[in-house]
Amino acid sequence: MLEGALTLKDLPRLREEAAGDCDDRPVRWSAHGQFRASTGGPEQAWLQLEAQVSLSLVCQRCLGPAEVALQLSRQFRFVTDEATALQEDDGSEEDLLVTSQGFDLVELVEDELIMELPAVARHDECPVAVKLSVADPEFEAPEAGKPNPFAALQVLKSQKRN
């Protein structure tokens, strides 16, 4: 079992999603590998990955910062090559990873946390009142005091007839 902590500055793609300066936010992770027996074949390598981080994202309701906790717990089964992964991907319930010398666990943690991001970040209840009207009375108020140019034209037109 491996476990550790990173900071957001170690995960630049995830850091781009955060609002404000949160480079030293801790990202905790753990990875546990094991071999499991498979029916009719050799044992297969599996990886249990867990990670968590709290990010400050932009609330799409009030546009203020919203703290969002990301937590993941995933299981992956390793396969020998890309061709096997493509062939077995549709028929398997688990996620597949290709066994390789250059396997990057930190990159996998970052990828999985990015996939945990909400489609729309928002507070359960915004700390400030959210303006929900489409008309702004302050915008229309200056217009109300101006004379209608067509009314003035009507006055000129009626004076010309007299």
Alpha-beta content class: alpha+beta
Percent strand equals 25-35%
Distance between termini? 98 Å
Count, helices? 5
Low-pLDDT runs of 5+ residues are none
* Cα Rg: 29 Å
Major sheet strand order = 1-2-3-4-5
> Which sheet architecture does the biggest sheet show?
5 strands, mixed
| Average pLDDT reading | 87
**Helices and strands, in N-to-C order?**
EHEEEHEHHH
Helix content: 25-40%
Principal-axes shape call: elongated
Walkthrough of the structure:
- With 162 residues, the protein is an alpha+beta fold.
- It has one domain.
- Helices cover 28% and strands 35% of the residues.
- The protein is built from 5 helices and 5 strands, in the order E-H-E-E-E-H-E-H-H-H.
- It has helices at residues 12-15, 82-89, 105-116, 137-145, 149-161, and strands spanning 2-7, 26-38, 41-58, 65-79, 95-98.
- The chain has a 5-stranded mixed sheet.
- The protein is elongated and about 105 Å long.
- The model has no long low-confidence stretch (mean pLDDT 87).
In short:
This protein has about 160 residues and is an alpha+beta fold. The protein has helices spanning about 10-15, 80-90, 105-115, 135-145, 150-160; strands spanning about 1-5, 25-40, 40-60, 65-80, 95-100.
Give structural attributes.
single chain, 162 residues, alpha+beta, five-stranded mixed sheet, 5 helices, 28% helix
Task: Give the helix/strand layout.
Blueprint: E1 2-7, H1 12-15, E2 26-38, E3 41-58, E4 65-79, H2 82-89, E5 95-98, H3 105-116, H4 137-145, H5 149-161
Parallel strand pairs: 4-5
Antiparallel strand pairs: 1-2, 2-3, 3-4
